[in-house]
Hints:
Elements: E1 24-30, E2 36-41, E3 47-52, E4 58-65, H1 79-86, H2 96-104, E5 109-114, E6 119-126, H3 130-142, H4 148-166, H5 169-182, H6 195-198, H7 203-213, E7 219-225, H8 229-240, E8 269-273, E9 279-286, H9 295-306, H10 312-320, E10 324-333, E11 338-346, H11 351-368, H12 372-388, H13 393-407, H14 413-421, H15 425-435, E12 441-446
Parallel strand pairs: 3-7, 8-12
Antiparallel strand pairs: 1-2, 2-3, 4-6, 4-7, 5-6, 9-11, 9-12, 10-11
Amino acid sequence: MVPSGVxxxxxxxxxxxxxxxxxxxxxxSDDPLGGTVRRTVLPSGLRVLTEAIPAMRxxxxxxxxxxxxxxxxxxxxxxxxxxxxxxxxxxxxxSALEISxxxxxxxxxxxxxxxxxxxCYYARVLDEDLPLAIDVxxxxxxxxxxxxxxxxxxxxxxxxxxxMHDDEPGDEVHxxxxxxxxxDHPLGRLISGTEETVTPMTRRQIQSFYRRRYAxxxxxxxxxxxxxxxxxxxxxxxxxxxxxxxxxxxVPAPYRPASPAVRTKPAATLVEPKETEQAHVILGCPGIxxxxxxxxxxxxLNNVLGGxxxxxxxxxxxxxxxxxxxxxxxxxxxxxxxxxxxxxxxAPGKVDEVLELTxxxxxxxxxxxxxxxxxxxxxxxSKGSFVLGLEDTGSRMSRLAxxxxxxxxxxxxxxxxxRVDAVTxxxxxxxxxxxxxxxMSLAVVGPFDESAFAASR
Length: 457
């Protein structure tokens, strides 16, 4: 399914049984709020998208793979994240030190991250150093050697990362909430895996995951900044020549389907007892998926409820009553599911009052809706945050890749702003009545046990 008002990518060209026999390039947009966006599909099914912004002197280059923690089986928990670490440890051409030092020597930076649905490896460099960045990043993603010694070294690093995460209750509560909603479904598991899954994981298991999942049709390469599209495509093809990503003709993999929808758990209360100075609570419910047409109304609703200092929850809980330092609402969206939740960090003795006020505000908005003034403010926040977020090459590169990888299209900036402007009061209030009227799950990390919240279930 493609959202209305957005055209599918046209590929054109001659195809064999497996895919195009030559690279096929299209201009997707010449955006007045950005640069010229072009897309090339290589014979292998790997896609290259660029946005040329001549006014910039830098380029952000990213390799995005359509695999994340939700693609793991239970025993594989943490494999995608483990692999993300290992790809920086060396290839047939470069050692780990050569990978990092070559980019840092020109003042660039590299990094990577794993999510539940995709993994990204990226570099940001001066425009003149883009050929180097392409060669290094393509090399590490396509041709890592995964030495046994490196597996053991990074296993220790990841176990430390997991332990560090456990010492951050403000982060842990979000994972606890996901487990309350999704249970043992992969969306409810930790991206990093656990000590029980990471400790026994072998190099052979990781290597198998690498070669099965990191296939050319699953990969999108995106770059934004002062660049030439044809030159980027040529450099990518040169960098991948002779690697496992230099494969027979194939077609790009479709973006992850939105059905069947993920089954969520009945509303639950999960408490992680910890002797913390501050309690961390999340109250929320299953939300909407990534391509639901109501996502623009959801952005407005989220802004009104807890999206900024002028939001209802911030004003009521922090500004007027001083009950919490941090309070906000948020929405997470996946291909086939989503979350909507309110987070608050407060003194343990204030948790009951914070929860009571939060529930009351959610019920009020569900029953009465928001006002015209709040609608206008919420829409303005959505448009402003989106446009201001495109002020650097990194965000523009990410926009290209996510459009291709997660939606199968790139929505022009003007079209996205138009879609926000088109949100009506009825749209938001209808969504609020549906979403905020759902049974709510509660996650708590702090000096409590579950019996402390038995009455709130």
